[in-house]
Amino acid sequence: MRYSMFGQTGHRVSALGFGAMNLPGVPFEQADAALNYALDHGINYIDTAAGYRNSEEIIGQSISHRRSEYFLATKTNKRDYASAKEEIERSLVRMKTDVIDLLQIHYVNYVDDYKAAMAENGAYQAALEMKAAGKVRFIGITGHRPELLTKWVAKGQFDQVLFHLNLAQPFALDELIPTLTKMGMGKVAMKPLSGGFIQPVEKAIRYPYSQDVNVIISGMVSVDEVKQNLAAMELEVEAEERQELEQLAQQLGAHNCRRCNYCSCPIGVTIPDIMISSQIRNTFGLLPKGLGFYEKQKESIMSCADYEPCKEKPLCEQKCPYHLPMQKVVQETAVSYYK
């Protein structure tokens, strides 16, 4: 396992982080075994959030007795002071710990959200207060807009950033990661499989592993998944493989969707998933989770071309900050995937 100094925190963290978002979906015994196996095999970064159902409670039940062995990161998606402080205090109780190593202001994609969180009575004030009280060690931010995150960290108010980085979403490499490196901040990449679309798994994980990040958060729910993720990181990425991965990322990232979720479809198409998986689907095919997504979305995708209010000017495209041809991709999917 590769370890690196996590920004300016003074902590050494494992390159593979345990993403606990999906643990509430499996039996407790399975989650408990996965978490403890991860710790036994060198993973020392645990990532969760107050909004991940009872994920924090599972962590508290499973590994709080091993608290000295891991760096604990959680999140609040509250924007006001009172709600954020209440949620942070609840997280401490749920995870059976006296201190949260990293508290992140979560899912900040809109300028208004950022302003609200950073205002005088915002969530950031609550995080600072909890830090002063010794209940939070470091403060970070998460989001899906790498160019906005780059601007928002410029004032030096955060210790870390959590961002997308995978073969289909390499966009953090442009400005965000170089900025974080220059500022000496913690760099955490999430969704190496892009939510269950990218395969093969080993290749998917080795791409962010080849980049300048401290931790790659991979969602794991079983001992077998932990083993699979660890195996993907056994060997360092050499120059030839890195070049191959870079070329593949350029190809799979051609859709240009950041998954900022500004777009919303009146007939229920989950547009970012269609956009991001479009190139993956054509190149590698889909993982079972991706196949399941397309089956669930079939009716909505097939209805896109017939939705009258969008025929002249697609409603989704009017909201996209990147001006992407979303309607065209959705309708092409309807023809090519379900033919």
UniProtKB/TrEMBL annotation:
<dbReference type="InterPro" id="IPR023210">
    <property type="entry name" value="NADP_OxRdtase_dom"/>
</dbReference>
<protein>
    <submittedName>
        <fullName>Aldo/keto reductase</fullName>
    </submittedName>
</protein>
<feature type="coiled-coil region">
    <location>
        <begin position="223"/>
        <end position="255"/>
    </location>
</feature>
<feature type="domain" description="NADP-dependent oxidoreductase">
    <location>
        <begin position="16"/>
        <end position="199"/>
    </location>
</feature>
<keyword id="KW-0175">Coiled coil</keyword>
<dbReference type="InterPro" id="IPR053135">
    <property type="entry name" value="AKR2_Oxidoreductase"/>
</dbReference>
<dbReference type="InterPro" id="IPR036812">
    <property type="entry name" value="NAD(P)_OxRdtase_dom_sf"/>
</dbReference>
<dbReference type="InterPro" id="IPR020471">
    <property type="entry name" value="AKR"/>
</dbReference>
<dbReference type="Pfam" id="PF00248">
    <property type="entry name" value="Aldo_ket_red"/>
</dbReference>
<dbReference type="GO" id="GO:0016491">
    <property type="term" value="F:oxidoreductase activity"/>
</dbReference>
